Amino acid sequence: MAVTVETLDKLERRITLTLSAVELQNEVENRLKRMARTVKIDGFRPGKVPMSVIAQRYGYSVQYEVMNDKVGQAFQEAATEAQVRVAGTPRITEKEEAPEGQVAFDATFEVYPDVVVADLTAVEIERVSSEVTDAAIDRTVDILRKQRRTFTERAADDVAADGDRVTIDFDGKIDGDSFQGGQAEGFQFLLGEGRMLEAFETAVRGMKAGESKTFPLKFPDDYHGEDVAGKEADFLVTLKKVEQQNLPDVDTAFAESLGIADATVEGLRADIKKNLEREVKFRVAARNKQAVMAALETATSFDLPKALVDNELGRLVENARADLKQRGVKDADKAPIPNEVFQPQAERRVRLGLTVAEVVRTHSLAATPDQIRAHIEEMAQSYERPSEVMAWYLGDQQRLAEVEAVVIEANVSEFVLGQAKVTDKALAFDELMGA
């Protein structure tokens, strides 16, 4: 018998399901009989519980279970026969009227939209590229030196200068009153590295150990501490100690300390360049992928299944709660997070997901095992023990699935860039890394 699919709205459909009341009741009785063999009830030996007692205690739950199973099975068979692609979980409601000897249900559901991608040759995309310069390598060497610097205390008459590590006590007041975060003892920071507000660094610069100074400081209007943002405070600062930083020389010993295989200055710079080029490659790919995805958004137009958007909304809200919990927010699981906050993001993700899936299907862009393995190998090279990273990914199906998704997106990006009107733009290394 052909299945009739009613169209209720753009993507909403309805199928009527009918089940034999006798078959349902027989299945309930069969399950209760199987249950009677092992169920334990006080006052009865196992296998000797009367069926009337079994039915009284478990009849409703078993009937509910059978109904769910049979209706679900009937819906799957009907959807397959009707060749509809169901999006989300159907809403099942029992009908008041049904043919004699049968039970009827309405299954209301959404279907996936027909995704039509516009002609990609007319799409315009800006593709970026970048190179690792000697200046970028120099800056990385400086960072590595600073990570391994040591400090020695300066002479009593030496003044604090940029690059020195200073230890201070300070006490700040606004209108004569202390405020939260305005006091500290034995506080250390490096002058000239921007950790403190400029007025604070200016006041400490040029002081000697043992000196004290009072100075005014106006907090920026956008200061992260809302209680003091835009206000002016008076600070009393006492310089306890000044230490000069000592940076290691860039030589063979320095390269050895970093575990460089070719422990020479040239080997160190070559290793840094290789790592930076790997990072540049990933960042360029990510930026170009964003451009491709934005272009695909404009190249398609279709209705979104509400069920898929709602599912995505649920995931985004749960992720937000998990983030709040990780940050130590009390009762994060109860924090009010309106769905409207994530509605545009959820709709965009669903739209892109359906669009990418259609491009992958139409142009056979699924990730191959070789591509997945190559991507993992490339990522693993950033770690000290690549083989362990490889095993970590290859030994878990969920992690492999995540890598597969990344490779698929890369395939789609490469395909779209090969079709579209592409404008190439070279980015400076600093611009790319700062993005």
UniProtKB/TrEMBL annotation:
<dbReference type="Pfam" id="PF00254">
    <property type="entry name" value="FKBP_C"/>
</dbReference>
<keyword id="KW-0132">Cell division</keyword>
<keyword id="KW-0697">Rotamase</keyword>
<dbReference type="InterPro" id="IPR027304">
    <property type="entry name" value="Trigger_fact/SurA_dom_sf"/>
</dbReference>
<protein>
    <recommendedName>
        <fullName>Trigger factor</fullName>
        <ecNumber>5.2.1.8</ecNumber>
    </recommendedName>
</protein>
<dbReference type="Pfam" id="PF05697">
    <property type="entry name" value="Trigger_N"/>
</dbReference>
<dbReference type="GO" id="GO:0051083">
    <property type="term" value="P:'de novo' cotranslational protein folding"/>
</dbReference>
<dbReference type="GO" id="GO:0015031">
    <property type="term" value="P:protein transport"/>
</dbReference>
<dbReference type="GO" id="GO:0005737">
    <property type="term" value="C:cytoplasm"/>
</dbReference>
<dbReference type="GO" id="GO:0051301">
    <property type="term" value="P:cell division"/>
</dbReference>
<dbReference type="GO" id="GO:0003755">
    <property type="term" value="F:peptidyl-prolyl cis-trans isomerase activity"/>
</dbReference>
<dbReference type="GO" id="GO:0044183">
    <property type="term" value="F:protein folding chaperone"/>
</dbReference>
<dbReference type="InterPro" id="IPR005215">
    <property type="entry name" value="Trig_fac"/>
</dbReference>
<dbReference type="GO" id="GO:0043335">
    <property type="term" value="P:protein unfolding"/>
</dbReference>
<keyword id="KW-0131">Cell cycle</keyword>
<feature type="domain" description="PPIase FKBP-type">
    <location>
        <begin position="163"/>
        <end position="248"/>
    </location>
</feature>
<dbReference type="InterPro" id="IPR008881">
    <property type="entry name" value="Trigger_fac_ribosome-bd_bac"/>
</dbReference>
<comment type="function">
    <text>Involved in protein export. Acts as a chaperone by maintaining the newly synthesized protein in an open conformation. Functions as a peptidyl-prolyl cis-trans isomerase.</text>
</comment>
<dbReference type="InterPro" id="IPR037041">
    <property type="entry name" value="Trigger_fac_C_sf"/>
</dbReference>
<dbReference type="InterPro" id="IPR008880">
    <property type="entry name" value="Trigger_fac_C"/>
</dbReference>
<keyword id="KW-0963">Cytoplasm</keyword>
<dbReference type="InterPro" id="IPR001179">
    <property type="entry name" value="PPIase_FKBP_dom"/>
</dbReference>
<dbReference type="InterPro" id="IPR036611">
    <property type="entry name" value="Trigger_fac_ribosome-bd_sf"/>
</dbReference>
<comment type="similarity">
    <text>Belongs to the FKBP-type PPIase family. Tig subfamily.</text>
</comment>
<dbReference type="InterPro" id="IPR046357">
    <property type="entry name" value="PPIase_dom_sf"/>
</dbReference>
<keyword id="KW-0413">Isomerase</keyword>
<dbReference type="Pfam" id="PF05698">
    <property type="entry name" value="Trigger_C"/>
</dbReference>
<keyword id="KW-0143">Chaperone</keyword>
<dbReference type="GO" id="GO:0043022">
    <property type="term" value="F:ribosome binding"/>
</dbReference>
